[in-house]
Write a structure and sequence with these properties.
5 domains, 4-stranded mixed sheet, 3-stranded antiparallel sheet, 28 helices, rod-shaped, TniQ, TniQ family protein
């Protein structure tokens, strides 16, 4: 069966199926529902885009190739599809008739159809986020809002009162350029795609995201969405599109802006307080997974820019690792008082002076940079407490500190911190390293002694022995099972001594000089005091004490030039008195005055010249 062509108006490509069915019904002076009942059709099934029902209606209307207009197809309880684009019920205005008065006036001016069936409904009037007619550049206005079951979707019947007053509606219509969002959305649903980030979201999701973002920008983070007018949503859509068209980077930039605005307030910290309606909408007002990409951007931004740790949650996600801390979150994590945290972090340079004027929630710093200090701040000890903790007598604690073996995590001696602060974990590490290779001493290892006794036996310092142990230079390290800490450590003095011996100074001690010259201490000192024998002060390599020495080359040169009378007597086999008389008779006297040197010492060159037989040339 086919209807008389008289009842079939012109169908336009952008006309919705429900609009066309309503126009056909109006030609028969029937409501859309009554007309469908008369024809054995289900109007609601046509509204839902049922394929079989559409085929039946198309055959009735004489469309051999199917319905030529636009069809919304129901795909779920609250879901539809248009041109392959999914559209939730909330993104449509199906019960409310919105129109462009200029379009309606143009429809009425065409004489191709009967006057009461000339006006038709465009599909883009049904899209909630399209609020402007792109052709006539005017806001869409509500022509009818009767959503009673008998009237809903019946375009021609609902529009009639509006048509009767069309001239007034046209005269009062405003001018407005379509927003970039509306243009994008209309083109997107028509099948045009672009490479912008918004195109990674379904069309409806991209549009709503722009509107919510723009609403928070124009009306504040805590905007009440239900209070906004259509004109305000138009402005919000444009503002949000300008942000979102730059993709994830643009959205992150806007989130930074929201944080900056929050920082100017005194509100308690939290994603809800910072991101406001944007967060509430995504967290509690929709569970649509189409917005997951936007949730991901906000989540990553929150984890990177807010003091959120593994115990904090946003959109059901928890940070794998904390990136930022605030004074407040550090206080909760460590138990340390916020005032102490401020002092410590300012002292070590993790926060600056300007930040100190902010509240605890707003003073932010990198968690990795602060980890070392936060781990130690609540287990700090003074140097006096260190001594007791490691079980070391005074002044071992200070000696080890001054040697750099015991290191404070916070330097004292400042206006802010008078005392050095040492951490329990660092002291534990020191004691563990000191006894890492040690086992309890056996009964037969009675030659091993505590570190402090070895310092006296080896003439070295405590830090030297400790460093040998820490560096693994000693093979024998034991512990006294009856003691703990530093005092429990035992070492072998014979193993320590050679390793702490200083470098040889390269000279003879005065005792060795005496032996070399075969003379007395008195003579050696006289030679040095009267500058006949050059000497200098050096550190003894064994006992670390300063001593007077004569360099080896200096003494060798002296002995090549001079020799005592007694030594010369023994070497020549001549009695001492006979030797001295003989040399005196030859005019050879002592090389040094008697009042300076209490011994007779000859210059060997003079002896050889005077008596070659006595001392032949070498």
């Amino acid at each position: 069966m086919k209807l008389n062509p008289f009842y079939i108006p012109t169908c336009h490509p952008d006309e919705t199926l429900t609009s066309f069915v309503s126009r056909v019904a109006s030609m028969a002076s029937r409501s859309a529902r009554d007309f469908c009942l008369d024809m054995g059709l289900n109007f609601q099934a046509l509204c839902d885009g049922d394929a079989d029902e559409i085929d039946a209606f198309s055959e009735l209307a004489g469309f051999d190739d199917g319905f030529p207009g636009t069809t919304f197809k129901r795909t779920g309880e609250r879901w539809f599809e248009l041109n392959g684009a999914p559209l939730p019920r909330a993104s449509l205005r199906r019960a409310t008739v919105r129109v462009c008065p200029h379009c309606i006036q143009e429809d009425l001016s065409r004489d191709a159809d009967h006057e009461k069936a000339r006006s038709y409904g465009r599909w883009f009037w049904t899209i909630a986020s399209i609020r402007t007619c792109s052709k006539h550049k005017t806001p869409l206005i509500v022509a009818a809002a009767d959503d009673s079951p008998q009237m809903v979707h019946d375009f021609s019947m609902l529009l009639q009162p509006f048509v009767d007053d069309i001239d007034r509606h046209v005269d009062t219509a405003q001018y407005r350029e379509p927003s970039d969002l509306e243009t994008y959305l209309e083109n997107r649903i028509n099948g045009d795609r672009s490479d912008i980030w918004l195109s990674s979201l379904p069309a409806y999701a991209g549009a709503r995201a722009c509107e919510i973002i723009g609403a928070t920008k124009f009306h504040g983070a805590d905007v009440m969405a239900e209070s906004l007018t259509e004109d305000q949503w138009y402005e919000a859509g444009q503002a949000g599109f300008e942000i979102a068209v730059r993709g994830a980077e643009g959205i992150r930039g806007y989130l930074d802006h929201m944080q900056q605005k929050f920082a100017e307030t005194r509100h308690a910290w939290g994603p809800r307080q910072i991101y406001g309606r944007l967060y509430e909408w995504l967290a509690h007002e929709t569970d649509d997974t189409a917005y997951d990409e936007l949730r991901k951007i906000i989540t990553e931004h929150a984890f990177k820019t807010l003091p959120m740790g593994p115990d904090d949650e946003i959109f059901g996600q928890r940070a794998e690792k904390r990136i930022l801390h605030s004074i407040h979150s550090a206080h909760l994590e460590t138990g340390s008082h916020p005032k102490r945290l401020r002092k410590v972090l300012r002292t070590v340079g993790l926060i600056d002076e300007a930040q100190l004027r902010q509240s605890d929630e707003r003073i932010l710093f990198r968690a990795d940079d602060a980890e070392f200090y936060l781990q130690r701040i609540e287990e700090s000890m003074s140097l006096n407490q260190v001594r007791a903790y490691i079980n070391a007598p005074r002044p071992v604690d200070r000696v080890l500190f001054e040697a750099g073996i015991l290191k404070p995590w916070l330097q004292g001696g400042t206006e802010t911190f008078k005392d050095h602060a040492f951490a329990k974990r660092d002291l534990d590490d020191f004691l563990s390293a000191l006894t890492a290779d040690a086992v309890p001493a056996a009964n037969d290892e009675n030659t091993l002694v505590p570190i402090l006794r070895v310092t006296k036996m080896a003439n070295c310092s405590t830090p030297e022995i400790v460093q040998l142990i820490l560096d693994g230079q000693l093979d024998t390290v034991r512990t006294d099972p009856e003691l703990t800490g530093f005092l429990s450590v035992l070492v072998d003095p014979d193993e320590v001594k050679p390793q702490v011996r200083r470098e040889d100074h390269g000279g003879y001690s005065l005792r060795e000089v005496e032996q070399k010259l075969k003379t007395t201490t008195r003579v050696v000192k006289a030679l040095i005091n009267h500058h006949h024998l050059a000497a200098e002060t050096a550190v003894n390599p064994i006992n670390r004490c300063p001593q007077t020495i004569v360099k080896r080359d200096v003494l060798d040169a002296f002995m090549d030039e001079f020799e005592t009378a007694s030594s010369l007597s023994r070497r020549s086999g001549t009695h001492l008195q006979t030797l001295m008389k003989r040399l005196h008779g030859l005019g050879v006297d002592a090389a040094f005055p008697k009042d300076q040197i209490p011994a007779t010492i000859y210059a060997l060159d003079q002896v050889r010249s005077a008596d070659p037989d006595l001392l032949p040339d070498p």
